[in-house]
TrEMBL record:
GO CC, alphabetical: cytoplasm
Domain of life: Bacteria
Stated name of the protein: Phosphoserine phosphatase
Organism: Rhodovibrio salinarum
Alphabetical list of Gene3D superfamilies matching this protein: HAD superfamily/HAD-like
Pfam families per record: HAD
Catalytic activity as recorded in UniProt: O-phospho-D-serine + H2O = D-serine + phosphate; O-phospho-L-serine + H2O = L-serine + phosphate
InterPro entries to which the protein is assigned, alphabetical: HAD-like_SerB, HAD-like_sf, HAD_sf, PSP
Keyword annotations of the record: Amino-acid biosynthesis, Hydrolase, Magnesium, Metal-binding, Serine biosynthesis
GO biological process: L-serine biosynthetic process
UniProt keyword Cytoplasm, yes or no: no
Gene Ontology MF annotations: L-phosphoserine phosphatase activity; magnesium ion binding
Keyword Amino-acid biosynthesis among UniProt keywords: yes
Similarity comment: family membership: Belongs to the HAD-like hydrolase superfamily. SerB family.
Length: 309
């Protein structure tokens, strides 16, 4: 059976996205992509702005999204633009599954916790290798938490003061919820951080690991089962079932190897400023745009996007 996402006879759309802070998308860039699509065999319609100088759609027919994506990437070359090609029908999703660390928030919160015990560099290196798929996630998590044995609960909570939301996070979640999307924060991090972050952004659900604390300090253990790649994928499938939709109607976003199964399962799986091994396999990627790029990928325009403080 032909993969519906790879049919050439249906109306498709190629989206170009720039960083909203720099607004680097101009008519020259759009024209270069249009010509590249035509050279690849596509019939291309006029572009439409989703956000002027930030995001635009180029509708086309006649070639597959894979062929269009390859042509668009070559056309933008080293310009600071993200490109994505997909069927126009069904591009707006009913469910979002989002990673937290280095996605919804700017850093790795476990690494931040370790600063209190002087092990940030050592633990950050283990995190980097685990997120790039070089280490087993569950084993690496147990190892890192074990190194934090005795860390005071107050120091864990104080980590929240150093947590910063990624640009566009609140806007993306507020917009999706306004349009009826169910949003879940599914993290290999910890509830002590994930639950407040979810509240800041307005997520409907939180799935994360739980640190075991006794007498006001970490025991060095994590409650089982650990939320790893299987749990993230299982949550995606569970929430699709609860909404009564196929996995193709789910969007997911993340940066690490433990996110890859859910990125590949979702209809719109976005590698966000991801580790090299993840970016190499994901169908969609945001390297230059902020998290509002998740909205432009689904065809939301400025007049549909929520304005948040």
């Amino acid at each position: 059976m032909t993969d519906q996402s790879e049919r050439a006879d249906e109306r498709q759309v190629c989206t170009l996205i720039a960083d909203p802070a720099s607004r680097d998308l101009d008519l020259t860039g759009i024209q270069d992509v249009r010509e590249a699509l035509r050279a690849a065999g596509a019939e291309v319609s006029d572009h439409r702005w989703l956000s002027e100088h930030v995001a635009a759609d180029l509708p086309y027919r006649g070639i597959t999204p894979s062929a269009a994506g390859t042509a668009a990437r070559k056309a933008v070359a080293d310009r600071p633009l993200d490109t994505a090609a997909q069927p126009e029908t069904g591009r707006r999703k009913a469910v979002l599954i989002a990673d937290m660390d280095s996605t919804i928030v700017t850093g790795e919160t476990l690494d931040e916790m370790s600063e209190a015990v002087g092990l940030k560099d050592k633990i950050a290196e283990i995190t980097r290798r685990a997120m790039n798929g070089e280490l087993n996630f569950e084993e690496a998590l147990r190892e890192r938490v074990g190194m934090l044995t005795g860390l005071k609960e107050a120091d864990v909570k104080a980590t929240l003061d150093r947590v910063a939301l990624s640009k566009g996070a609140k806007t993306a979640i507020a917009t999706l919820k306004r349009h009826g999307v169910t949003c879940a924060l599914v993290s290999g991090g910890f509830t002590a951080i994930a639950e407040p972050v979810a509240e800041w952004c307005g997520f409907d659900r939180v799935v994360a690991n739980r640190l075991i604390i006794e007498d006001g300090a970490l025991t060095g253990e994590v409650a089982e089962p650990i939320v790893g790649k299987e749990a993230k994928l299982a949550t995606l499938r569970e929430m699709a079932g609860q909404r009564g939709v196929h996995e193709s109607a789910v969007a997911s976003i993340g940066d690490g190897a433990n996110d890859l199964p859910m990125l590949l399962a979702a209809g719109l799986g976005v590698a966000y400023r991801a580790k090299p091994s993840v970016k190499a396999e994901a169908r969609f990627a945001l390297e230059h745009g902020d998290l509002t790029g998740l909205l432009y990928l689904q065809g939301y325009s400025d007049d549909e996007i929520a304005q948040v403080a």
